[in-house]
Amino acid sequence: GEGIFITEWAPGSNAIQMLASTKKGSVKQLHAIGNYVPQNKFIDLDINLEKLRVSMFQPFISVISSELGGMVTGNLTLKGKQGDLGLNGNLDFQKTSMMLDYTNTRFSFTDRIIVSNNEFLFSNLEAFDSLGNKAVLNGKISAYKLKELAVNLKLETTDVMVLNLTEDQND
Fold first, then answer.
1. CA triplet 77, 123, 30: central angle to 5 degrees?
2. Using CB atoms within 10 A of its CB, is residue 122 exposed (0-12), middle (13-18) or buried (19+)?
3. Dist. CA 84–CA 121, nearest whole Å
């Protein structure tokens, strides 16, 4: 694919205008445009995602998952002072799967996740185990200062594989 990153000083607004975009074929997978005001360290960025591979976010959740697959489409805003940014918007996940390393189980889902003030909100998200059994997920994953993760999730299910450890993994 192709990628560009352009910055330009806008003297009238005392801001740096930013544009970042990646393209695969005719699809703009990531398009971010906005401003950074150095005087008060304020960022205002609009981010559009289209069929972006979610595997690029795996390093951010490596403490809970070593495998992440699928696509995401959505619109986000990243706004606030440097060090205290707020992420908001909607993310539509398609054919997304995740391996939970601690339990050695894989779940997949296709659903929308709302992002509100750095919290990823799950509302009746239907997830399926590797055998096709359904679980319903509610709750949130909070990203404090977009770094530290706090997880508060409730999983409602019947007959879903939640633990799949081998004898060697069960130490």
1. 30
2. buried
3. 20
Q: Are 61 and 68 in contact (CB under 8 A)?
A: yes
Q: How many whole angstroms separate alpha carbon 82 and alpha carbon 62?
A: 24
How many residues are present in the chain? 171
Burial of 115 (0-12, 13-18, 19+ CB in 10 A): buried
Q: Along the 171 residues of the chain, how does pLDDT read in single tens digits?
A: 799 999 999 988 899 999 999 998 889 999 999 999 999 999 999 999 999 999 988 887 777 788 899 999 999 999 999 889 999 999 999 999 988 888 888 899 999 999 999 999 999 999 999 999 999 999 998 987 767 788 898 989 888 887 877 777 776
